[in-house]
Amino acid sequence: MAHADNLLLQQLPNAARRHLIDQCEPFELVLSAELSVRGEPLSHAYFPLEGFISLVIDVDHYPALEVGMVGREAMLGSELVLGLAKTPWRALVQGAGNSWRIGAEALRAELASSPALLQVLQTSLLVRLHQQTLASACERFHEIGPRLARWLLMSQDRAQADSFHVTQEFMALMLGVRRVGVTVAAGEFQSSGFIAYHRGELTVLNRAALEEQACSCYAADKLLHTELTGHKH
Question: Do residues 12 and 115 touch, judged by C-beta distance below 8 A?
C-alpha cells in the first residue's frame, strides 16, 4: 500500500496526496463488515484501493435496499465535507480488499488546509448524489434482468476482476427484489453463457453480452462520472 491506488487520491497534487496519506492508516475491508451505522455520525472516511462497499437503506419493515456503491473510483465519507455527517444508510463491505482510513476530525483538518482536496471531495459527493438519483429511477422503472446485468457490471468494475463472491440472497437484497426473481434472471444469464455461478462464486464470461442486456442506467452512470469529474472509471 505504499502507492495510492484510489482514483480520487490520484487526482490530488503530489504534495497534497502525500500529506493526506500520511494522516491515513491501512484498513482491511472485510466482507460483510458494517463501516457506518444509519443515523450516527461518521467516525472515519475510507478510500478503497481494492474491494467495494454498498450503501444500504432500511425503510420500515421492508428488506434493505442498495442505494449506492463505492469502489476505488470514490470514497466513503464524502458527506464530511458538509460538516457533521449523519447518514440515512448503512455501509456494508460487499467486496473484500484494502483501503486507506482517516478519522473524521483529521479529514476536516486536511480539508481546511487543502483547497485541492476540498474540490475533489465536493465533486465526489456531487457525483454520488447524481448517481443515487439515477438509481432511484432505475429501481422504479426497469425490469429485474436489465437491473441485474447493470449491478453485475458495476460489481465487476469495482472488483477489478472477472470473478467475485456474491450470493443470490445478497443480489436480491441489493436489488430490492425477491430471491426467486434473481434466481430466474441469473439462470437465464448462465444458460446463455454470460456468467458462471457456483456456490457463491460468480464469473463474468461475456461482458459485452451483459452490457447489451443492462439497462441504460449503466452507461448513464459512467457518463455522469466522466462529465462531472473529467475522469473515466
Answer: no
How far apart, in whole angstroms, are the C-alpha atoms of residue 217 and residue 185?
18
Torsion angle defined by CA atoms of residues 65, 70, 74 and 76, in that order, rounded to the nearest 10 degrees = 80
- By the 8 A CB rule, do 51 and 158 touch? yes
CA pair distance 185, 204, nearest whole angstrom = 14
What is the distance in angstroms between the CA of the first residue and the CA of the last residue of the chain? 20
Give me the tens of pLDDT residue by residue for the chain, a chain 233 residues long: 444 489 999 999 999 999 999 999 999 999 999 999 888 889 999 999 999 999 998 888 877 788 889 999 999 998 898 886 788 889 999 999 999 999 999 999 999 999 999 999 999 999 988 888 888 888 889 999 999 999 999 999 998 899 999 988 889 878 888 889 999 999 999 999 999 999 889 999 999 999 999 999 999 988 988 887 877 66
Residue 53, classed as helix, strand or coil, is strand
